[in-house]
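Try this one yourself first.
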C-alpha cells in the first residue's frame, strides 16, 4: 500500500490524512504467477495497480489463441475500463506473469478521490488521455507497421521486459510467430542500427 501512496503523492496533492481516509476502499493482494484476476465476459468494478511484479491483459480468439493487449509493470494500472465504467461484460482477461503484489482499486475509491483530492480529476483525465494515446499507437502499429517496427516500439515502450518475458509472450503481444521474432532479433544483432529507428 505504501508504494501506491507514494505514487499518488508524486502525481497529486494528496495528503497522508486523505490517503488514510481513502485507503479503506483499497485492498492489497498477493498474486501468484498464472493467477487470473479478471475473466472475460464477467463484470467487474475493479482496477489493479501493480506494486510489484508483472500483469497482462489479453483476449482469446475462437481457436483459443491468446492476443496480448497490454502489460502492467511496477507503478502501472490494468483492468477492463469497458466493464468498470459502462458495467458491461469484460472484454479481456487479466493475469499475472510473475508473482506480484497489487492494490485493488474499486469505483468507490475513484468517486471519493475526486471529492477529497482537489487535483485528482485532472490527474485522472491526464492518465486517461495517456491510455487513449497508447491504444491509438498500438492499433496503428498492429494495422500498418512491419513486425520489426512493432518489435522496436515494444522495446521503447517496455525497455526492461525483454528479459522478463518469454519469446512466446512477446510474439503474442506483437501479433507474430515466435519464429518471426527470432528472425527479427537475429537481424537486429547483425544490424544494430535498425533497432534505433
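Now uncover the answer:
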Amino acid at each position: 500500500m505504501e508504494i501506491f501512496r507514494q505514487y499518488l503523492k508524486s502525481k497529486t496533492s494528496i495528503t497522508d490524512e486523505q490517503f488514510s481516509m481513502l485507503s479503506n476502499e483499497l485492498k492489497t493482494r498477493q498474486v501468484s504467477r498464472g493467477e487470473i484476476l479478471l475473466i472475460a465476459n464477467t463484470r467487474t468494478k475493479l482496477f489493479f495497480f501493480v506494486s510489484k511484479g508483472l500483469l497482462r491483459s489479453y483476449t482469446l480468439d475462437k481457436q483459443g489463441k491468446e492476443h496480448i493487449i497490454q502489460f502492467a509493470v511496477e507503478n502501472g494500472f490494468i483492468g477492463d475500463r469497458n466493464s468498470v465504467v459502462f458495467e458491461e461484460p469484460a472484454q479481456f482477461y487479466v493475469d499475472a506473469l510473475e508473482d506480484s503484489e497489487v492494490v485493488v482499486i474499486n469505483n468507490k475509491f475513484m468517486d471519493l478521490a475526486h471529492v477529497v483530492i482537489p487535483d485528482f480529476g485532472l490527474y485522472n483525465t491526464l492518465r486517461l488521455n495517456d491510455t487513449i494515446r497508447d491504444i491509438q499507437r498500438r492499433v496503428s502499429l498492429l494495422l500498418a507497421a512491419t513486425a520489426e517496427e512493432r518489435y522496436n516500439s515494444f522495446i521503447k515502450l517496455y525497455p526492461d521486459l525483454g528479459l522478463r518475458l518469454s519469446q512466446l509472450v512477446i510474439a503474442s503481444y506483437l501479433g507474430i510467430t515466435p519464429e518471426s521474432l527470432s528472425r527479427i532479433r537475429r537481424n537486429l544483432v547483425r544490424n544494430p542500427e535498425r533497432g534505433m529507428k
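Discussion: The first helix runs from residue 2 to 11. The helical segments are 2-11, 16-22, 81-86, 107-116, 120-144, 147-157, 167-174, 178-190.
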